[in-house]
Amino acid sequence: MSQSDNSLRLVLVIDDDQTAHLWARRYLSTAGFTLISALNGYEGIEAFKQHSPDIVLVDIDMPGINGFATCAAIRALPSGKNTPLLMVTGTEDAERVASSYVAGATDFVVKPVNWKVLIHRLHYMVKASSVLRQLEKSETRLSKAQHMARLGHWEWYFVDDIKMYWSDEVFAIFQLDKESFVPDEASFLALMYAEDKACVQESFDEIIKNKTVVTIEHRIMTGKGEQRFVEQQIEMIENLNHQLIGLTGTIQDITERKEHENKIKRLAYYDEITGLPNRTFFLELLSSTLKLAKRNDRSFAVLFLDLDDFKGVNDSYGHYIGDLLLKEISRRLSDGLRSSDVAARHFHQCHNAEIARLGGDEFTVLLNELTYPEDAAIVAEHIQEWIAEPVYLENLQIYTGSSIGIAIYPQDGENSETLLRNADIAMYHAKKVGKGHFQFFHDSMNIKAQKRRKMENYMYQAVANNELRLHYQPIVGAKSGQLIGAEALMRWESPQLGFLPPNDFISLAEDNGLIIKFGEWAIREVCRQHKRWQQQGLGHLTIAVNLSGLQFNQVGFVPMVEAILAEYNLMSPSFLIFELTESVIMADTEKMFNKLWQLKSMGIKLSVDDFGTGYSSLSYLKSFPLDSLKIDRSFIKELPDNDDDAAIVNAILALASTLNLSTVAEGVETNQQREFLENSTCNSIQGYLFSKPMPVDEFYAYWQANTPSTL
Ligand code: C2E
Ligand code: CA
Ligand code: CA
Question: Is 102 domain-assigned?
Fold first, then answer.
């Protein structure tokens, strides 16, 4: 410490002994201190107030107020809290020493004072106190800064004695009262937002496991029940041996920042007029959809929509009306695409058709996970219908139309830009064809879509025009070879399209809902036919009818069946078997349970079609009132050479026998297959080996030929 530094140091000596002041002056001034003298306690306290000395020496034995009282009085002053205070005492008895400390003394010296030594002590004490003062200053500055930044600091020790320390700001962030709330681990975690708790806990684990610093953003629920966003930076506390003894972290309230970010995001990602995602957001959605589709080997469609003559609306009615029109269009798109009806039929598993406004009068729609890419055409048609409805705005009636271009992943592009561009190009082609049209980017899709549309148009007339047929395929006993029944399989004899097998039209009928009508027709036709067979001597044959899930899940399905049975006076129709696939039966097991029992109680038999291709819960198989399993053709195909298939078929047969179900093997084409099944526990078989499905006349002839004459 240099001389000039010391000259600033003020020493206050409070002593009633004049000679003490003389000695003090002599030694202190040569050591660079400036002396202030006080001859009694009162004077001393006053001098302290006036000069704020750096250090104080107080004699204990003084007339008036003694050294202890003087010391205590100085300590009580705001500026006297941290000033070093030395008590000077004649005798070094324990009681006096103790009283000195109680009064707030920093230390004490014994008379006669060895000034040479004392000088060094004084230097040290002044220095220490100035460091302390600096520290205090920076601490208050830090806590002010922390307060301003809403930054809190916590420490949590979990070795030996578990405890937690929170800075004032942590209490403030959690909106808890510092005086009454005692923080601990449990209360700390309890304040984390329920859904984010696991994430905070995981961070703790990660810090401990990887010895890293972790920064997390999460929500908290404050003591006043407010949800806030915080950012925490957490690290370990180690002891000198580098052993983990706790965690420490800073916590900052970032709610306002988050709100700003969200606002910026809204501005950056959403269109202001319609509130729909904008181009930036749409491209992001597109690229994440792409990744998923790539991984799952799925197809999806991008629809690019442009309003016809939007410019005309803007020009004649102004931008205000133009904006309102855009809003209305976006509402129609959202409502329409979200309506469960459209979603259920055309997107199957997907409920999320994403809509965006790219700018101007251009919109895009992302159709996820299409089973048939050409179905995008059906959605495009719906959209065009919704938009073509007149719009009423401020006493105006506005008609508008739209042109749509469709690009399909992956055939029309494997990245976002290409898909969007090709959808745009397709839209231009659509405009060229004429307003209010849609076009696929790829022409083969246009042809497919046209075919589908044509088929759909004719399909609506199929029942009324009596174009549907049922063909019957024999089912025979596996051991006896006797004809025991038939499966009714639908065909469509269309005057325009020709003779169509079910695989060509059933999926479309399921998409547009016509399968409900078709299925009802099939049940009625089977009943009508059986009635005739009863008269012709074929009444003992069972007939299996295939049911679609959509049809079966209709609310009115059971009453409809009842009505048909009553119509033909077929009470307790033991000949009638309904075939349902595994996926239909297992889809909504609760509802199934009731429906299946209702049918069962009407005397109808129930069979699980294509067994083995889907997923069946054994416990449901057990509790449902089922009668038989139809082993899927794919397992029969390579019998008896394929050991795996043989094992599967045997396993299904074993399962069926434990569940007390009879079995039908489908698709039997060869004698080897038949032999294999003959020697198993399979009950009956069906396949081209006996006959293909045939029209009813041929079936009658088949029956005659295969039934031993009773004459
Ligand atoms: P499915 O219920 O599995 O019907 C068996 C299909 O296998 C029939 O095809 C039948 O002709 C064919 N098949 C029978 N034996 C053999 C064989 O030995 N070898 C080969 N390769 N195939 C054989 P079809 O008639 O084309 O029917 C196809 C599917 O259409 C049916 O499969 C069924 O899922 C559906 N379907 C048919 N009629 C109806 C109906 O009235 N309503 C509903 N919802 N679906 C129906
Ligand atoms: Ca079937
Ligand atoms: Ca089948």
Answer: yes
Domain boundary among 236, 260, 284: 260
Are residue 235 and residue 295 in the same domain, yes or no? no
Same domain, 595 and 476: yes
Distance, C-alpha 565 to centroid of its chain: 48
Ligand 1: centre distance to CA 489 (Å): 6
Query: Between β-strands 55-59 and 576-581, what pairing exists: parallel, antiparallel or unpaired?
Result: unpaired
Whichever domain contains 662, its CATH number is 3.20.20.450
Which two three-digit tokens encode residue 163? 């405890």
Which bin fits 401, alpha (ψ -120 to 50), beta or left (φ > 0)? beta
User: Pocket around ligand 1: residues whose beta carbon is below 6 Å from it?
Assistant: 473, 489-490, 501-503, 506, 519, 522, 546-548, 609-610, 633, 666-669, 686-688, 693
Query: Do 689 and 541 share a structural domain?
Result: yes
CATH of the domain at 419: 3.30.70.270
341: which 2 tokens?
């009806």
Domain annotation covers residue 542: yes
CB 164 within 8 A of CB 155: yes
Phi, psi of 670 (to 5 degrees): -120, 160
Contact 669, 704 (CB under 8 A): no
User: Do 394 and 540 fall within a single domain?
Assistant: no
Pocket test for ligand 1, best of 500, 543, 546, 639 (most atoms within 8 A of CB): 546
Instruction: Name every residue whose Cβ is closer than 8 Å to that of residue 528 and which is 6 or more positions away in sequence.
Output: 568
Contact 564, 527 (CB under 8 A): yes
pTM of the model: 0.56
**For the segment 72-117, what is each residue's pLDDT rounded down to a tens digit?**
999 998 888 888 999 998 877 888 888 888 888 988 888 888 888 8
> What size, in residues, is the chain?
711
Q: Is 305 exposed, middle or buried (0-12, 13-18, 19+ CB in 10 A)?
A: buried
Give exposure, 647-663, as e/b (b: 16+ Cβ within 10 Å). ebbeebbebbeeeebbb
> Which tokens in the block code for residue 5?
């530094």
Q: Determine, yes or no, domain membership for 511.
A: no
The domain that contains 210 carries what CATH number?
A: 3.30.450.20
Residues of the domain holding 185? 150-260
Ligand 1 mutation pick, 487, 489, 529, 637, max ligand atoms within 8 A of CB: 489
Residues 172 and 316 placed together within one structural domain of the fold: no
- Asked whether residue 504 is domain-assigned, the answer is no
pLDDT tens by residue, 216-267: 999 999 999 999 999 999 999 888 888 888 999 999 998 988 888 888 777 8
Q: How confident is the model at residue 711 (pLDDT cuts 50, 70, 90)?
A: very low
Question: For 34-85, how does the pLDDT look when each residue is reduced to its tens digit (9 = 90+)?
Answer: 999 999 999 999 999 999 999 999 999 898 899 999 999 999 988 888 889 9
Residue 710: the pLDDT is: 52
User: Final residue of a domain: which of 260, 292, 326?
Assistant: 260
| Residue whose CA lies nearest to ligand 1 atom number 2 | 546
For residues 657 and 621, the answer to whether their CB atoms sit within 8 Å is no
Question: Are 90 and 162 within one domain?
Answer: no
Atom of ligand 1 nearest to the CA of 688: 18
**Closest ligand 1 atom to Cα of 471:** 25
The verdict on 452 and 600 lying in the same domain is no
Question: Could you give the number of structural domains in the chain?
Answer: 4
- The C-alpha torsion from 261 through 262 and 266 to 267, rounded to 10°, is -30
**Beta-carbon contacts of residue 253 (< 8 Å; ≥ 6 apart):** 150, 173, 228, 229, 230
Whether residue 400 is found in the same domain as residue 304:
yes
